[in-house]
Structure prediction request, 159 residues.
Amino acid sequence: MIGIISDTHDNVFAINKAVEILKERKAQVVLHLGDIIASKTVLYFNGLPIKFLRGNCDGDIERVKEKIKEINGEFLGSFYELSIENKKIALIHAPDKIKELALSNKYDYILHGHTHQKRDELIGNTRIINPGGFYLGDEEHSIALLDAKEDGLEFIRID
Prediction:
């Protein structure tokens, strides 16, 4: 099970709830798709097998990287490709290049953040997923769990 989270924007209350759920659901890897914001916020993810993508609103990125190392996480930069369950996955924060990436037919999944809106859409043969966000002004906060082997997706509301 892959935990997908994005745009947490220092919303510590929602982050704590999400981390609890991801631990309960035994996410094998957690992918944070950017906009954690403050470096100290990284520490709330301690105990998760987590990888962080850079977002457009992230603060001092060198301090963010230091905090990620402290919790044994991994910093992925602004774009990253990985394979899980023999599925090719692209990670990107902003959706501006998604259509081009999807139409390349290189990926089974493209995971993105930035818009704070849940998304589950097919472009060609590529499934595009956005878990939603935690920005304090948003009406709904959510994460997603992806079973890449079974192609199952579940959005979980974080109140």
The mean pLDDT is 96. The chain is about 20% helix and 30% strand. The CA atoms of residues 67 and 118 lie 28 Å apart. Helices lie at 12-24, 61-70, 98-103.
